[in-house]
Amino acid sequence: MGDAAQLRIGELARRTGVAAELLRAWERRYGLLSPTRTAAGYRLYSAADVGRVRRMRDLLDGGLSAAEAARQALAERAPAPGEEIAPAAVASELRLALERLDDASAQAAFDRLLADYSTPAVLAGVVLPLLRELGDGWERGEISIAQEHFASNLVRGRLLGLARGWDRGSGPRAVLACPSGERHDLGLVIFGLGLREHGWRITFLGADTPPHTLMQTVHRLAPEALVFAVADPARLGGVAETVAALDGVMPTVWVGGAGAEQLDGVQLLEGSPLEAAAQVAR
After folding, report:
1. pLDDT tens digits, residue range 190-244?
2. Where are the beta strands (DSSP E) in the chain?
3. pTM (2 d.p.)
4. Strand duo 173-179 + 225-229: pairing
5. Residues of the chain with pLDDT under 70
6. CA–CA gap between residue 92 and residue 154 (Å, rounded)
7. What is the rounded distance in angstroms from the CA atom of residue 126 to the CA atom of residue 59?
8. What is the pLDDT of residue 3?
């Protein structure tokens, strides 16, 4: 059995602060725990079980129902040893403030997150899940256009504040842009912050960048990477046009986003913006 599963339920309860009876109920009702069994039939729990229980506890503290908290805890990737996870309670405060269009409360929640947690922890543990929730809520008709725009603009402003000085240093340079007509650049901002964590310098051109502007920038800066974000597949023509026009002055070109597809001479990015940043950094 090794070290993966060696905790009896009493020890799991002690480490998580959740009563053994409640742990059994969560295991039975929601499948939250994945114990192994000894030859004598005793259940043994792992560090991953500890992490899921703590995450569910935090989600409950943030106001989620037990069923929703269990679903989210099971859906999230288990943290690596020593990995920093931003608290669900503050994330929930931020989400509720954004839904209420409450700028002051949302800014205060963001301030607390950034004061207590690293940028990667806030991006992975709060910002990306929050944006997914808002997008899903808008598609279901639970979030209005005003709420979605308010939240996106507030988060974008805060993240661009974190981006100040991200072109400094001596690491490789990446130019980030959306092709002509593409205006969704929030994921590209998150990607840039993630790539900066890997030591890269970032030149951010943002939304709706014409091919000739990209050509001029690439010729001037000679970056190691040119990265496009595409939400609408109809905008992929701008990527292809830019790649064709570069003609020999060719950094590695990448494209990612919901509308991204494989193009000649272009590498396809996969996963979340942070996972895509790690892909480019490798």
Report:
1. 999 999 999 999 999 999 999 999 999 999 999 999 999 999 999 999 898 888 8
2. 5-7, 36-37, 43-46, 173-179, 201-209, 225-229, 252-256, 267-268
3. 0.70
4. parallel
5. 1-5, 76-89, 248-249
6. 16
7. 12
8. 39
Amino acid at position 126, single letter: V
CATH 1.10.1240.10 is held by the domain 88-162: yes
Beta carbons within 10 angstroms of residue 169's beta carbon: 13
CA 175 to chain CA centroid, nearest Å: 20
Selected from 3.40.640.10, 3.40.50.970, 1.10.10.60, 1.10.1660.10, the CATH number assigned to the domain covering 5-64 reads 1.10.1660.10
Strand partners, 113: none
What is the average pLDDT value for the chain, to the nearest integer? 87
CA 38 to chain centre: 38
pLDDT tens per residue, range 37-55? 877 778 888 877 888 898 8
Cα separation, 169 vs 198, in Å, equals 12
- Closest by CA position to 110, among listed 99, 94, 98: 94
